Amino acid sequence: MRIAVIGTGLIGALHARILARHGACTLVALCDIDADRAAALAAELGCRAYGDAAALFEAEELDAVTVATPEAHRHDPAVLAARRGLKMLLEKPLGRTLADVDRLVADLSDLGADPAVNFILHGDPRFARMKEIVAAGGVGRTVSTFARRRGTRLGIEKYAPWTDLLSSTLIHDIEMALSVNAAPAERVYAEAVVRACAPYGSHDAVVATLRFADGAVALFETSWVLPPTQPEPLDPAFHLIGDGGSVVIEGSSMGIKVVSETGYSQPDMAHWPIFDDGVGGALARSLDAFVTRSLAGQPPLVGLGAARRAEAVVAAMKHSIAEGRPVALAEMDGGDA
Asked: Which of 63, 92, 221, 261 is the one with CA 20 to 30 A from 300?
């Protein structure tokens, strides 16, 4: 499969490194508005570089593309790819507002596109096994879900200028909670702490509840406030409690602990650990699933509909914080949040 990557920042560069080593792919080209950055990475990986997505699509014969630009710049390259009938993997979130998301979903649907959306928890074997257990009735009816995703202040430094805590970070757990609860979500109530992120109009920390139509509930906690000395740079958890059992997932280090003369750490082995022979973890498995399912003509693990449901919950949480009240998901149907 001849593939290109659009966006060569942190995540896009990881996409490129993974796909350059994938046995079922030829990494043809990279594209970024920072043409020098794209050119440097392309020279390393042995492919071509472009500074404009339209020029990329005009010059190259492609089967597929991944779009890893900041969400404010997701729409145009995705629509260009859809017009050419390419298989497509979009990074989440799909837009800065729910109205932006709905415009992209509508435009892609009108073009007959069925892109995958990269919620990488589905590439984590622990979450994959949890989904199998729930689907087989192993925990009975879901009663409650707890999800924690705490990062260090590096999140504020790197991400707050162009995205926000809920859209970039907690959305992973929101989408997973929606995927393992049988009933649709119906109401959100959220509270936030706003200090260091005040200049960006965003949140340092958020605690939120989500109620499902069958009475099940979920509790979410997320923040960007831990010090850089935190041993585990990302501190996540996901607890699913049913009336017939439970599944508890903790941490991102997969149990590894490293002690040296300079300190103690628990390196992230779950999401995108980087080894001498390439990038591993859930991101690599997620991209592999995109490639193999595209080649087999199978639907994506997470498509536009599932992504939009998660985006609506994010929008409802922001609305709840702003107005200080519970918000029904039905209020988000207009896509204006």
From this structure: 221
Closest residue by Cα to residue 114 from 86, 95, 92, 72: 86
In terms of pTM, does the model score above 0.90?
A: yes
Instruction: Give the three-state DSSP class for 228.
Output: coil
Q: Mention every residue, 6+ apart, whose C-beta is less than 8 A from residue 215.
A: none
DSSP for 268-302 reads --SS--EETTEE-HHHHHHHHHHHHHHHHTPPPSS
Provide the sign of the torsion angle of the four alpha carbons 311, 9, 267, 160, taken in this order: negative
**Separation between Cα atoms, residue 196 and residue 213, nearest integer Å:** 36
CATH at residue 261: 3.30.360.10
Take residue 20 and report the two structure tokens written for it: 């350059």
6 pLDDT higher than 70: yes
Nearest to 321 by CA among 206, 195, 211: 206
Res 333: pLDDT: 84
Residue 239 β-bridge partners? 146, 248
Q: Are residues 130 and 252 in the same domain?
A: yes
Contacts of 222 (CB under 8 A, 6+ apart): 148, 149, 150, 165, 166, 169, 170, 173, 205, 206
Domain count for the chain, please give it.
2
Cβ partners under 8 Å of residue 167, min gap 6: 71, 93, 96, 314
